[in-house]
Design goal:
Blueprint: H1 31-44, H2 48-62, E1 68-72, H3 78-86, E2 93-98, H4 101-113, E3 120-124, E4 135-141, H5 152-162, E5 163-174, H6 180-196, H7 201-211, H8 220-230, E6 233-241, E7 244-250
Parallel strand pairs: 1-2, 1-4, 2-3, 4-5
Antiparallel strand pairs: 5-7, 6-7
Helix pairs in contact: 2-3, 5-8
Length: 253
């Protein structure tokens, strides 16, 4: 695999957005978040640094000649770059989509720094409005959890309908658990992971409050059921760390 995720200057900013006491407001992917996002996600999402290079491996395995790859909710382009390096030079195209102007602007920076000839089309739009066609690999990397639950099946159905037989969806999500005891344990371990990465109790508490009405997690069973309803099959978990998982969902051949 190619080491294509070397950070440029914007990636060096330390996430201190919740370090001081402040009025509660919903989390938004605005310019302040975009500035510190690489540090934020590295210190907040267990396994993120493993998932990204594996997206390259999965893309290399399932990308079909002459098809499209989509990174829906591309943020700063980490998974976009992983897909780019995993795509064969066989008439494939790659599209990254995010509805945040600040994210797309910084994503363009990272795409430009990456030494790879495959063009990347970046679209600043809502993924619910994105035209999807002739896909063989689509990535939703911690994106679906921010979509209105009532519209998640609609989005996944459009992806499934646009995916070639044998194609795949990579779906990474924060999940919740059926058992209250397991939910409490996994949440505790996630918070300890964040403490180990330098976040204070205040930062953890304020970030959790900001995300409460914005990031809506679901159980693994709910994800499996919806993916099958959408038209995928053979849904499997290929990675889990605490309450963060990544799944593969296949379009029947």
């Amino acid at each position: 695999m190619t080491d294509h995720r070397k950070p440029g200057k914007p990636a060096q900013a330390l996430d201190t957005l919740y370090a001081s006491d402040q009025p509660r407001q919903d989390f938004r992917f605005d310019a302040s978040v975009a500035r510190v996002f690489p540090d934020m996600i590295r210190r907040s999402v267990p396994g993120y640094t493993t998932i990204i290079p594996m997206i390259e491996v999965i893309t290399e395995q399932y990308m079909q000649p002459g098809s499209h790859g989509y990174d829906l909710g591309c943020s700063l382009g980490a998974s976009t770059l992983a897909m780019r390096h995993g795509m064969p030079d066989s008439g494939c195209t790659l599209v990254g989509v995010d509805n945040s102007d600040a994210m797309i602007e910084r994503c363009e920076h990272f795409i430009a720094l990456d030494d790879h000839p495959l063009p990347v089309e970046l679209r600043c739009e809502d993924i619910l409005d994105t035209a999807i066609e002739n896909a063989s690999v689509t990535t939703l990397n911690f994106t679906l959890q921010f979509v209105d639950p009532d519209r998640r099946l609609e989005l996944l159905s459009r992806i499934a309908n646009a995916t070639r037989p044998g194609g795949v969806l990579i779906l990474s999500e924060k999940i919740r658990f059926e058992s209250d005891a397991e939910q409490a344990t996994q949440t505790l371990l996630h918070h300890e992971f964040k403490r180990a990465n330098g976040y204070s109790g205040l930062e953890i508490s304020q970030k959790r409050s900001a995300l409460e009405q914005v990031l809506i997690p679901e159980t693994l069973a709910e994800h499996r059921k919806r993916l099958e309803q959408a038209g995928f099959h053979n849904v499997m978990v290929w990675y889990q760390c605490f309450n963060f998982i990544s799944m593969l969902a296949f379009k029947p051949a």
